[in-house]
Write a structure and sequence with these properties.
43% strand; elongated; 12-stranded antiparallel beta sheet; 409 residues; 10% helix; 6-stranded antiparallel beta sheet
């Protein structure tokens, strides 16, 4: 049902986001109408593999959710020299090698233990190449590092001792060391880090932290004890790899459902699932008198029965326009800034709210043509799902609502 009310603007001001589409000279007295009955169709769809290299965080671990099934994450990266070159000296003896990582958070259960395993890559990776979330690099069968980790803090420095076989690899290289990065990358193409998690959680690592390094401890005939750090910097490839198995879950049933709109919508990061939204009767608005939107908000509500302390809803969702060719693009409303565009989770009302005034005004004006919107987990203003975190949510499709404040021109 639509209702009618009046605003009397007492002062003139520069047009802002809430005045999109309003004609000049209409500031003195404007009659507005409000509609919240526009039909919104929404359904769950599979996310495509997403570009996953050089993201903020590198993820490792797994969780087995009764609603979303088994989700798995691991990452690959490489090290470089911390100096222009290194010569270890005569009488070089490799004593030990330690991988140092910085943990910046997690998603899931904090109980139990992570068995973190480091393997040596068996193929080259490159920082200037694009890699996607389904890319699984070849690695050698024997691990080169292992530790057991119990989660006691979201932020922690983790030391992972290398195996005796990996220490022997350094010893076999000899005292000449490495003349440059190319020489070291020929020696160690990179590593893969994965966690066999019995506690159902995904770990977030910050690989660009200054405390992240591979440290070789050694001595020579002229030095009792020395060490050398190999580092990760922006010249190093950093690639997340994800897999999601929805077999036998409600998500699988939703993906198989061909209905135009669904009761429950499943949304998951790590190249999982997202929602496709459409406004099937929106063109009827274009057949009315020309309209100027003062405000348009889309609200999305978490399903009341889907709450979980172990798997909380995403802190932020994002919307992107789906072009006719299937690719995505940012909405014009994003340019107004995050505070205006919205998408943050309001736990008091279990709702996400988006301002999409500019987008819908463009559709009314015939300036854009698309096939709807994608709704997905995000951690930045990107027209694709998040590669930086592990989170999931179940939305109530029947409570999704579009509210428009408008005036006839």
């Amino acid at each position: 049902m639509s209702c009618l009310f009046f605003f009397f603007l007492q002062t003139c001001k520069e047009p802002g986001p809430l005045e999109i589409g309003l004609p000049s000279g209409s500031e003195n007295q404007i009659q507005y109408s409000v509609s919240d009955t526009t039909t919104v169709f929404a359904r769950t769809v599979q996310e495509e593999p997403l570009q996953s290299d050089e993201k903020l965080y590198s993820l490792s671990g797994s969780y087995n959710d009764p609603v979303f099934g088994l989700s798995f994450a691991d990452f690959s990266t490489q090290f470089r020299l911390s100096t222009a070159g290194v010569n270890f000296g005569d009488g070089f003896v490799a004593d030990s090698v330690v991988f140092n990582f910085t943990l910046k958070g997690y998603y899931g259960n904090t109980l139990g233990t992570h068995n973190i395993i480091i393997s040596e890559l068996d193929e080259d990776i490159y920082a200037d190449s694009s890699y996607y979330s389904d890319r699984n690099f070849a690695f050698k069968p024997d691990s080169i590092g292992f530790t057991k980790l119990s989660l006691t803090s979201a932020d922690a420095d983790i030391r992972i001792p290398a195996t005796s076989g990996f220490i022997a690899k350094f010893q076999a290289n000899g005292s000449g060391g490495f003349a440059d990065d190319a020489g070291f990358l020929a020696f160690l193409k990179g590593i893969r880090v994965f966690s066999l998690s019995g506690n159902n959680s995904i770990l977030y690592f910050d690989l660009l932290s200054p405390t992240v390094k591979l440290t070789l401890y050694y001595h020579t005939s002229s030095s009792a004890a020395s060490s050398y750090d190999f580092i990760i910097n922006t010249a190093c490839a950093r690639v997340n790899h994800f897999s999601n198995d929805y077999s036998g879950t409600p998500v699988a049933s939703s993906l198989a459902d061909t209905s135009p709109s669904q009761q429950l919508l499943y949304i998951q990061s790590m190249a999982g699932v997202k929602a496709k939204l459409s406004f099937p009767y929106f063109d009827q608005w274009k057949n009315k008198n020309p309209l100027a939107l003062a405000k348009a908000e889309l609200s999305v509500t978490i399903d009341a029965n889907s709450g979980s302390l172990q798997y909380p809803p995403p802190a932020k969702l994002f919307l992107a326009s789906v072009k006719e060719d299937g690719t995505t693009q940012l909405l014009a409303d994003v340019l107004e800034g995050e505070a205006y565009f919205g998408g943050q989770y309001n736990s008091s009302v279990r709702t996400y709210t988006f301002s999409i005034t500019r987008y819908l005004q463009q559709k009314l004006n015939g300036d854009i043509s698309d096939s709807g919107l994608y709704l997905f987990v995000a951690s930045s203003n990107e027209a694709s799902g998040s590669m930086n975190n592990a989170s999931r949510g179940v939305m109530d499709g029947k409570k999704m609502k579009l509210t428009m404040v408008y005036s006839d021109l």
